[in-house]
Specification:
The structure is a homotrimer. Chain A is mainly α. Helices cover 69% and strands 2% of the residues of chain A. In chain A, β2 and β3 form a beta hairpin. Chain A is globular, with a radius of gyration of 22 Å. Chains A, B, C: This is RHCG protein.
């Protein structure tokens, strides 16, 4: 790893003082803002005994902690190990992938707790956080990790931190529009996390287009062991995806159902991925990139509908389709995007998150529009779509329309936001990485 | 990884169209069968609010999801990461081990949901699935992963899929005979999963015996990093085994007890494995193969009895014995099986699953036969062995006899089934791997 | 790995018969002691149905198993995969790190169940164990894993087992003094686990000082893949630390709060670690050792106070400080300790556990002293500090004083115990590793 390097380049890229300064200043800002705004939710506060009496709860086990903590930990593993190791396939950038993912996620979750808190958990001047907020912060950062996949190996850590700051902010705004203004359901985040994160990242990488990146083409390959590390990422994402899609669903049947639907969709997705990978490759061999990525598309695509009565066979169908779409995307679409549209998508997030995210939004809209009281039961129907208060009179087909609107809003927010942030990242102040340095570990 | 190869061989082994065709057709069949048969269990269905009232439950936390989901995720990790990575020790076959394990498990769980569903969760024409079905499907596939260990590196993916189809079917039949007809207890599957899976796999590998496999002996070795990857598999299996053995036990004390017994047995097993590994090796060094495998035998061997009142010291004794038996097996029995009986057991599943599985069945029979109302309490006694209805008058010693019968049935089903499936796999239509290609990653 | 070696050296180090003998004899002793003393706790015993009636519990979900099992499994992963893989960074000792960690932890948990059981779960002549005992045993062994980090690569397996035996014993005594005699709160073990374990290990390595270890300096380095393996350890420790600190807290709000505080502290710690790592290195690059270790200091340092009303911003401040202290320690203190004090601290546990552990104790004392009924609520105040019975009249400031005393006791016990055990380990009977063999895998 010790190779002679141009001094100037090093200065330009890492800038001894800039990264420390940004990290320290931002962390100080977090402390101040947390000091002013963030407190414990009643279920995490020492006043819980009184709260329990008021809520007429008889046992500590009814604390939200026990409903959601196991899922939270699974989601946490997905963000830090799953996304981190999924990106270790580059032969010389494994440590950068895991390390920078760690840095941006650790920063992002703090900022997300604030941004999402102001929108969703703000009570009498304070943000009250509990385990559900932690899950939502992880979700929000998940969308940044997705975007990171598009620009992997081509940006400096400061650029990543700047992107995280802006993307988390826009994520929270978009999420507020969808969940609160449009009253859309999106428990597993097909729209808010995947569609938004992926198109945001694709737009950023388009703006940061480097025509002479061809010269480091050889470093974009993988080696034997880097592929096994990447499989660790893949498998943890695949195994824990049922937790991801069910983590913030309603207590009881909704969480239960979301896990089952996701399990089914993912299983089907593996088979069609393998089938198309073998079919489209020379000599019928399997391509590791497809196995590492396209097998996960089934989880993305039931993100919106997993908590609905999609039914196990519906989930299989969604997984079936997405394994095909995603694999075909890797074979035909990624080269096209790069050569024609100048979108250099290192990890192929267009195939794993963007298209399956859109499909997930559409499946969600259809499933919502097709809902009936017969299928859900009278109470279940109201509970599943939260048709109470202002939304008491909303019909399934209207809900389906709003769900569809949610897709469009997420897409537009992502493209506009990505363009803006891409332009900001082009400012020379952040210290861009030189093209010949791309895809190289150097930390 | 780019080496010149004979074109004919490639055609023979991977067959551009056969793998895709099998995957796609089978997945379509799954969708159709799921569409006809599979629906949500009442606890995962949107009618849950009504169900809750009927069952007189006051809180969503009493949904089976919260009793079993954390254990389910641990089991899920064992199947996909545990078994997958345990088999990465081969220096040139790491990706094949993880990748094919992924493929067969993803297919297997779907077919297992159907097969086990018809036998155990079939109500008015529908299979109603919940989290317990997901665990059972993972368990069933676990037995296929075990059998995969015997033939690792020597079969084509299509052969694996065919084996999975048949093995899952026979597993479900054997499980039905044991649990429903013999009314046997086997929560951790010493008999149904390990004994059945291992002898099935050993029989298959016997039938597929390749006399000229000696020539690829050098590829059967491990290298430094492949051994560390294998340790990831070992540790996840070891750590999560208490979840495996307790996942489908009765709510409350039985789950609690099963986890404790398994924890104790595994801890003891590590010490005797290390002792005998060091004692039997030249120069007293430890053998990595033993550490990777024999340390797990203690989990296998309390599979049947973990939920019974085996007591912590009973568990230590079982673990103590199994560490020895398994390690001695690796040193003396595996070479004997290969040279004399022509059983080429790549991962040594005879030592890790077959013998400890039999021991587990026997320990279960003894523990059941020794049960008294004094030790279990009046209610606990009935609950532990489900001595209700038709079985109201069954005594512990009779139960012990049935448990013993369960071992014999599992063994016979495995040997007969393995012989049958081995013969089917020999059909040239599946595209056997050439001997010189064995233990080589080529996907 | 096949190099010519001196026969004598091999004999000296591994001694064909000594390791097996020690393992077997100790395991037999465990079986006898478990047989005499260890039984199931009422919540894991088949009499649970009667127990439930007596405790007036209406549902199986109120079994302690469901409150703590998910956290237990996370802690279990931290001990075996987290600590094991964190120590794989040495380029030629990865297997030794994971393997010996596995051996000592498996032995340690059995002995810890007994030692802690006699002190805390002893009822009418029997130790009654449940899931909380398993967690505490894992915690106790965690402190041994920490000490192992200081002597990594420099000791024989027998020495490690002897150290484990003594350290677990002293741990239990120290824990008893703190929790029962001083009535100190230390749920995440800043004092009992980290301060004690780290200073114990540092003292042992000081006593075992090898002046000519310089010659194997080159083996102390890491290589690319060994660093990625170490990151697996880091991330699992980092992600699951909220479970570690909340695992044995009171049911309900305390567990909930402990997880949130730890999550916040760890997030802040990552940013200051990255900042100072970049600032203190030549050319502003990040140092992998810091990222692998100092990022975890935030979890150590809220160990005592996490279950108190530290508040999220308080946690951020603690994490902020510890990232700095730990990173600075790696850069300046470790070389100083080695050259001046002859403390060869292989993994830098002084920076990751010792200093943050002390900080954690102090933060705990301050947080306890600052507690008011206003912040905690009347009931919450009593519950949080267990101000009942003999301690009914203890005030927060007195509690703070006792907490501070707990730090001092832990420190003294660690130093005295470490000196004693170090002296014992110097006895030639255990077979010391030759200096030229250090940091080499040879099992």
């Amino acid at each position: 790893m010790e190779r002679p390097r141009h001094q100037g380049m090093v200065k330009n890229t890492y800038m001894r003082w800039r990264l420390p300064l940004v990290c320290l200043l931002w962390e100080v800002a977090m402390i101040v803002l947390f000091g002013v705004f963030v407190r414990f939710s009643p279920e995490a506060d020492a006043h819980w005994e009184e709260e329990k009496r008021e809520m007429n709860l008889t046992s500590d086990i009814e604390n939200d902690f026990y409903f959601r903590y196991p899922s939270f930990q699974d989601v946490h593993v997905m963000i830090f190990v799953g996304f981190g190791f999924l990106m270790t396939f580059l032969k010389r950038y494994g440590f950068g992938a895991v390390g920078f993912n760690f840095l941006l996620a650790a920063f992002g979750i703090q900022w997300a707790l604030l941004m999402q808190g102001w929108f969703h958990s703000f009570k009498s001047g304070k943000i009250l956080i509990g385990v559900e907020n932690l899950i939502n912060a992880d979700f929000c950062v998940g969308s940044v990790c997705i975007a990171f996949g598009a620009i992997l190996g081509k940006t400096s850590p400061i650029q990543l931190l700047v992107m995280t700051l802006f993307q988390v902010t826009l994520f929270a705004v978009n999420e507020y529009i969808l969940l609160n203004l449009l009253h859309v359901k999106d428990a597993g985040g097909s729209m808010t996390i995947h569609t938004f994160g992926a198109y945001f990242g694709l737009m950023v990488t388009r703006i940061l287009y480097r025509p002479n990146l061809e010269q480091s083409k050889d470093k974009q390959g993988s080696v034997y062991h880097s592929d096994l590390f990447a499989m660790i990422g893949t498998l943890y994402l695949w195994m824990y995806w049922p937790s991801f899609n069910s983590a913030i669903s309603e207590h009881g049947d909704a969480q239960h159902r979301a896990a089952i639907n996701t399990y089914c969709s993912l299983a089907a997705c593996v088979l069609t991925t393998m089938a198309f990978s073998s079919m489209l490759q020379k000599k019928g061999k399997l391509d590791m990139v497809h196995i590492q990525n396209a097998t996960l598309a089934g989880g993305v695509a039931v993100g919106t509908s997993a908590e609905m009565m999609l039914t196990p066979y519906g989930s299989l169908i969604v997984g079936f389709i997405c394994g095909i779409v995603s694999t075909v995307g890797y074979v035909y679409l990624t080269p096209f995007l790069e050569s024609r549209l100048h979108i250099q998508d290192t990890c192929g997030i267009h195939n794993l998150h963007a298209m399956p995210g859109l499909i997930g939004g559409i499946v969600g809209a259809i499933t919502a529009a097709a809902a009936t009281e017969d299928v859900y039961g009278k109470e279940g129907f109201i509970k599943a779509f939260d048709f109470t208060g202002t939304y008491q009179t909303r019909t399934p087909s209207v809900q389906g329309g709003f769900q569809a609107a949610g897709i469009v809003v997420s897409l537009l927010m992502a493209l506009a936001g990505g363009a803006l942030v891409g332009a900001i990242l082009k400012l020379p102040v952040w210290g861009d990485a030189a093209a010949e340095n791309c895809f190289e570990d150097d930390i």
